[in-house]
Amino acid sequence: MVDRHPTPHAMKCHSVAALWSPSPPSHHVTAAAATPAALFTGAADGTVLHWPLATASASASPRPSSLLCAHAAAIVALCPLLSPASLLAACAAGVLSLFSASAPLRCLRRRSLPPWAGSPSLVAPLTSTSTSSSPRVAILCHAPDDGGHRHVSALVVVDARTLTVLHTAFHGTLSVATPRAIAVCGCGDEAVTAVLADVEGRAQVVPVAKGVADEGDLPRRLSVSSMSSVASAEMADGRVEAVALSHDGKVVALVLKTRCLLKCVAEGVVLGEMSLLGTPLCKGDKEEENRCSVGGFFLHGEEWNACAPDDGIVVRSLVLWSSSGAAAVYRVVVGASSFESEVVCEIPDILSMQGEVLEIKFCQLGQRLVRVESCSYKVAGSLLWKPKISIWSLDQFELGIAENKLPSSKLLGEGGLQVEEFKPERSHSHCDVNNVVEIQVCSSDSNNLERYGRTVSSSMVLSEDSYAPYAVVYGFHNGDIEVIRFLNVSPATAKFGGGGIYPLISERFFLGHKGAILCLAAHYMHAPSDSRNFHRALISGSSDCTIRVWDLDAGTLLSVMHHHVASVKQIILPPAWTYHPWDDCFLSVGEDGLVALVSLETMRVERMFPGHPGYTSMVAWEGVKGYIACLCRNLHTCNDAGSGLYIWDLKTGAQERIISGTASQSVFEHFCRGISKNSVTGSILGGTTSASSLLVPIFKDTSHLWSHAGKKGHAIPSVSTNHKNGSTVSVTVSAPTTYDFKGKTPAPDEARVFHGGNSVYSSEKGVSSHSVNKRIKCPIKCSCPYPGIASVRFDLTAIMSTQGMTNSNTDKQVRGHLHGENAKETLQPGMLDCPSGVHEMDSPSRESLEGRLLRFSLCFLHLWDVDCDLDKLLVDEMQVCKPEDCHIATGVVGDRGSFTLMFPGKEATLELWKSSAEFCAMRSLSIVSLAQRMITLSRSCTNASSALAAFYTRHFAEKVPDIKPPSLQLLVSFWQHPSEHVRMAARSLFHCAAPRSIPQPLRMHKNKAPDAVLSSSDNMNDFISAVQSASVSSDGELKADSGNVDKDDSDTANMISWLESFENQEWLSWIGGTSQDAMASNIIVAAALVVWYPSIVKAKLASLVVSQLIKLVMSMNDRYSSTAAELLAEGMESTWKACLGSEITHFMSDILFQIECLSTAPSSSAIHKTAVAVTMREALVGTLLPSLAMADVTGFFSVIESQIWATSSDSPVHVASLKTLTRAVRGAPKALAPYLEKAISYILHTMDPSNLIMRKACIISSMMALREMARVFPMVALNESMTRLAVGDAIGEIHNATIRVYDIESVTKIRILDASGPPGLPSLLTGSSNTTATILISALSFSPDGEGLVAFSENGLMIRWWSLGTGWWERLSKSLTPIQCTKLIYVPPWEGFSPNSARLSIISSILGHDKHGSSEKTKELDEADNLKLLLRNLDLSYRLQWVGRKTIKLTRHGQELGTFQL
Q1: What confidence tier does 849 reach under pLDDT thresholds 50, 70, 90?
Q2: Reported pTM
Q3: How far is 818 from 1045, CA to CA, in rounded Å?
């Protein structure tokens, strides 16, 4: 199939599957926030857990349902936003993320704060009175005190929708210490202020004034003096444990060990003091060594706060908690000279084990309090954390037995991460052999607890060797490394899997480390070597300060390295386009500040880069120039000493430059822009490592590499096959000039060659001739955002684009990479060879790469255990089965590398199907597209593929009735996808989902529906005509008639508002669309519903959407204009014709002008624009123009005839007009029958030999049009030598019936033949009818020698014969006098021929049947109605065939009616 559309402009369709390790992840809670329906907890590793909360019963056991992956540093703040419902997360690295608060909790935005802002610490939403303005948040970025010196802090105001910095409210040194609490108060946009409070009780009020500051520029330091500075009181019992600010910013609470002080922010006086002695917060037997901070906050809500301005009494409620988990709710009454406090209720503490560390946080959820506990436990010397939450009621109490005991809050539910969720489905036993353990499948339960009781400290997915991942590597805290292979690439080894081709087959252990595995990497060796006996290396770094290199294939230990004196945290592999020998090296990064370059060829440390002040958290390797950049960033400071960028020359080991301060981050991002992306992971991290892709800087332009190449005028990347190395797939590209830190002139661009996930620099000048101007895409990308959690992302567009790939080179790549020298053990030489161009998978040995990709994708994307019959069919027939021994879950792709991953279990996935229309659309589209592709790829999988497609289009909704119908707007975005299977799937899903998901503004209300059922299109046309009255103005706008009823105005306004809506369209971010895509999709959805489902949408919708649809066609949008043209064409006769009226003619003129503009595009246009132009021409000429021509035939001929003189002779408009005429002849020949003379005249005009330019451009299309006319219309005939053309009148006055004969070479009329009524019977003709038009010539045919012409007329049942000799023909050619026929033959009526038919034949007038009755009826018919009747009864099936030199055979519908001798 030809790619009609450019791939860069195809909508994104990504699906995600998650692989969870057997052990639950560690989650050390650092921030918590609650929304009305859920709790969110952020952890020190950057993860955010979503806990759905039940609304009622005490038996509720909340458990996390999804993991939000967007950060790689500790979460410092979570801020719920109400409009729209979303969650803002901020981490210590300065990254902000915005998640949708409703399922599927997708990351809508992911952005970085500008480097000058520093690290965020406190976040508070801003109040705004205007409903139209976007929500805003105030973010405080500060540096803590360091040796008595205060550092620069910034308070920035961020747009909560786009996460861009709107302006800077404050930038400078605060007059208070490090703020511990923030509150935003004030009403109106101008009077909003932010109150910052420190541990000493002092507060600083910062007005959030509107200013202008660019996001990336360093603003001037705004020094705002403190409006209220409260002196710290004497605190005899130690430091302040927590600070709480009221929501109006007027009262600050200082929580100490044994008491709590409340102070007035404005006046700086102490309002009162509460003693904590004797309460659960401060028991006498509590040890003072427990340094865990207590906390507190003010409850919000009218029921907890009251204010009486007359008496000056203010009531506030405060929650305080201790490190043991105990909490108390205080109600404080503050008057003019009085202060009272009482304990409303208490929450008991937690019974903890000896030596167990607890960290507690509380948050309010309406009338409930949620306690979040982080409990520590040790595994092999590593400290891990397990979260647990409990929900307590604030209005339901459990009274104690003792009289003096306070009322205790009622426990509504508790839950946490359950280890049972991660238990294996199968168990294995193993034996130790030479540090390598092969796990065989068996039924024994031995070592089950030992194996799955370990926790994962590092993980990665092996996928750089093939297009699909095949194994996952887990590194554990006890030092073990385990390789679990879940994909068997070779179908020949499917017999080991027990019924499917993708179960877990074997496992392997690498034992030897004495500490936790902190980093992993897998590298394929590029340079051939006789001395080296390994091809793939596994590199592991541990907390035992060692690095071990293993042979990944054989499982042996190759080397142990001890050049670090602290834990090894990162392994960096060379990126694409790296020179030899550096392409077989890696960088090791340790906590000792050392970065070392190690060669895998020599197994030695080749370079050492010491001198960093601390751990280099981010290291980037630029392979072309040979530089590395090491960023040492202190996440808790933004001063010059806190951050530094060290740039090293890899070849010499010399330090090139040191950049300090906030500029280091900007320069590091600039450095990373010159690094090529990894085709497997999609990030700049080279090769396959355990490093999280979330560590990579967030670029504003995600396609930075290719956009720079385009801006600098480099060649478009091309794909080529490297024939010298059959085991690799090489991609030769032209790369941009990179930054030279020595200040030298940039080197000229050179050819770079990709090798799988790794790369090698190619110095060869020659490039393979098998190159195409298209960048290869990896269809399946893998990453491990956090240890033990792997995400597998499926790109539907890339998977579908593999259908044209051959097996020869690709299979060599798979054999060479996956199996190396052991390829013979798993793959036979002729297994994957496919001699034909079409890949068929009827035998597993002939399975193509595309077939394996499709099966693998279905293996992870299909929802198992919902339809058992379907699951069995997939396993038995398609050989697709659920992967064993790994926990599979689903997920969604977020913005800029972020993910939302569901926890394992069918329930969590079903909740996603039930709550997100976008997820339903994307996942259903992916699976149905894959299933349809499997049908065309393999005949043996037809039943299973058809059942799979039917399940996700119809049967799924029947089995699970409450699932969401797919989003119609999202589905129509894929109607112009490059892949035919995706287009078909999108349309099928649209038709199945449309009746259930019609937008409310467009739906026909039942009480307004007419009594009659409007099921047919004819009834709908009558209904539309009766209800609407609209006319199209000259510029295409519809003007409503003055007779519209006022009560429909609101419905009309709602429909117009829906059609033009483009804001807050969440589905756009799923596919990478824009606001223009939102409006275009709405128009397409409305038009499709009008055309296909007119009975369930409002009748006025057609008149409202038609003008928008026309504008969309004329906009030449590469995603929607073709679809709009198809919808206009499909509904033209039934719907749009009544709405457009006379404007059809103007519309055709505009389209022809647009065609001329598309064809005369400048040569400098991009390739994808040329492809768009070709696609649009096909849609306009092949679909829309023929429908317009059939709707208004007269207007069409007037337009194309005017184009003859209005455009140039070589204009593509003429060819387009001829093609349109040809298609109109095929589509509606009867409508064109009265205009045969005009059609022939136009065709001959384009062949005029006096205009050689036009004749040369149109001759092929003109001859095709003539042949099509002769094929469709029996009254048009061509002789065998294609030199003569005869055209008879199909409909006309019987006295003026003629046949014109043309010479095609000279394009002149050479003869007119008289075909009027039968000679000698003129009186019969005059009495036949009062109408003037009738059916005249029914069939024509030239004699085989071209010297005679025979004609048949159904009106009169006559055959006429003109026998014209060559000499006589030539002699009389200049005379155009009508010539009478040589012979006339009457055809006897055949069986089934009725003289009483509506043909108004002469036979009926002769026999005199119903003469008076018919005359009365014809008087009532005007000419237009008579013409419609004639066209309806026009029979185009008559044919005259020569069966001899003087014998003619008359047929009708292929049935012989008689043979006649001439």
Answers
A1: confident
A2: 0.82
A3: 72
